Amino acid sequence: MSEELKPQAAAPQAAAKPAAPRAAAAKPAAPAKPAVNELKPTVVEPAALRAELVRLHDKEGMDFLLNLTGEDWMDEGLGVVYQLENTADGKQACVKCVCPDRENPMLPSVCDLWDIAHTYEREVYDFYGIVFTNHPDMRRLFMREDWVGYPFRKDDKTEEENPLRMTNEPLSDFTTEYSLHEDGTVEKVEHRVWDKDDYVVNIGPQHPSTHGVLHFRVALEGERIRKIDPHLGYIHRGVEKISEQMTYPQTLALTDRLDYLGAMQNRHALCMCIEQAMGVEVSDRVQVIRTIMDELQRIDSHILFFSCLCQDLGATTAFLYGFRDREKILDIFEETCGGRLILNYNTIGGVMADIHPNFVKRVKEFIPYMRKNIQEYHDIFTGNVIFQNRSKGVGVLTKEQVISFGCTGGTGRASGWHNDLRKLRPYAAYDRVQFNEVVRTEGDSFARYMIRLDEILESLNIIEQLIDNIPEGNFQEKMKPIIKLPVGTFYSEVEGSRGRFGVFIESKGDKSPYRLHYRSTGLPLVAVMDTVCRGNMLADLITIGGTVDYVVPDVDR
Amino acid sequence: MKRAKIKSIPYEEFKDNETYEKLVEELNAGGANVIVRKLDDLIDWGRSNSLWPLTFATSCCGIEFMAVCAARYDIARFGFEVTRNSPRQADVILVCGTITTKMAPVLRRLYDQMADPKYVVAIGGCSVSGGPFTKSYHVLNGVDKIIPVDVYVPGCPPRPESFLYGMMQLQRIVKVENFFGTTNRKEKDPFKAEAERKGEEIYKEEELA
Questions:
Q1: In chain A, which residue's Cα lies nearest the Cα of B95?
Q2: What is the ipTM of this complex?
Q3: With an 8 Å Cβ cutoff, are A158 and B106 in contact?
Q4: What is the sign, positive or negative, of the torsion defined by CA atoms of B155, B161, B162, B164?
Q5: What angle (nearest 5°) sits at the alpha carbon of residue A300, between those of residues A533 and A466?
């Protein structure tokens, strides 16, 4: 099997390097061009990293840190891959930096350039032990503080060192900064997370309104929030790490369980990444089916957003209305996919099964039904004075803030950031449909709420345009029994229910990924909670958290 | 033998009656007084039809739990609709979703905070056995490692019907419990019980004194 795959595996490289045209000629059927989603990172020395990133940020306008992936290249050392984007013209850049010292890996922090780097760098520190110098808050992000070792390192022996600890979790009030002096020495400085007279309240991890197991430590001044310290990791399942031992088709199963309200889109992103890396083209029929399914999933997610927000604010009737309509979508899913929530529908090269004969009829009945019911939502909840007072002008985010924090999806669009990937870089069948990108400029909780409800209507428009012309064709391309990716780094993304969901794969040519990283849509949304809540009332934390709309298993992965 | 009567499903239609009968036998091993048993029936009837769950959900199964609570599946038909946000007021904890090793002490504490009599239902593959994340370094392979589980509901996530079936199993368990006279759910020291069953001689505390 590996014999057959070799020419295909070598093809993308062959095109990149003209020195090896023989490999491409050996099998003309193999794609001769490099994969469309291959990343070509500029490799930078650790000493020059900071200067290069400052240049990209200041001179080339790369104001959006899309993704930051830590990696372990065994003997070469540990390192990171930065993916940047210019939000004005859509240009992207990718920078890779390897730190050869495995004992004391250190890289300069860039959390003063992009706010989200603050959280991403803590994640890399937690998983790989790379210390970012001058980062003011170098704590673990997901693991317990008494966790031994760094779980994502290839040579880590986690299980022996970390038995199940049933003791209460230690939570330090101190944090460390490794400040780098001009003469090259590193000094360890301790900072306080909380001031001495801060009044700190714990919310979570078991709290009905945090939408999952999330822990906020909130410092209060009277009833106003002075600072929030989100504490993550209560549902960190190590999906990325266990994927490294799985074959590509096996990794698909875990994507649905990340952001279970974007199951279709997550799996679509991973399938698309693998397909593009292999040079497989799926049929038109599959593209259209995937698009329709993604939009149904988006409606499902937004209805749930509405229901949960209402429930959190005490409107139980609205919750029941939302779930009534959501069941209609679940019926459509169930008939075709067999599942209600976890769908397992997309596969590499197509979809699991063709659409059910009743699919088109059901969807066509659903479209006018949902349009009518959206009005009902507005009648019962949107116009409510209590809700309006609690959401208008509350939790305002500016456009600069959402870009710096990388808050994509509805949260970003509510602050005037045009970040809809379906418009920026259309994938699947989005280039053949007409729809509006819903954008508002207020940036408050009410805008974030209205964006979601308006997006339901846009999604219905998209489905309506496609449902009557689903082209004929295969629903599944014939794939080899063992799927291997060519050597290289690949990145694909889709517009998920709550933002841009990306899949980063580094392949060494094996049947399982060397490194699989998901650009979580939720992590930036939780990271922004401190900024968005400051100065607001404690009670509004629930409204703001609800409208920002994160799903915790997607945050923790 | 006493059999719990569930309105919605006839006794024969439950999938596993053997385990249940064994449980009933264990509970009634010491025999039951007729009058006390009648009082017990009354209390069990009330308790089994008003089991208040704790709103506890870590991941996907939590969304299905919400769906069960909503209009179509309507958990209120069985008296489970009063979800409590505080463990102090809850009767049953539905463990919906993956429990990570970081979450494990929190779950244990929630369980300890609940007032007796309390029940645990493990919902979904993750809380039954670790599910698709069994090999992960940060996932607890089954909540029964840290708290006693009464009913297991497999599925990923389980369908709402499975939820309800699982809850009815729990109702059956509640319906045969003894309230007066005996302490609920107190397990004998397994070492002593095993020795007693086999007729082996062991040192007893009374003798040592």
A1: A206
A2: 0.82
A3: no
A4: positive
A5: 125
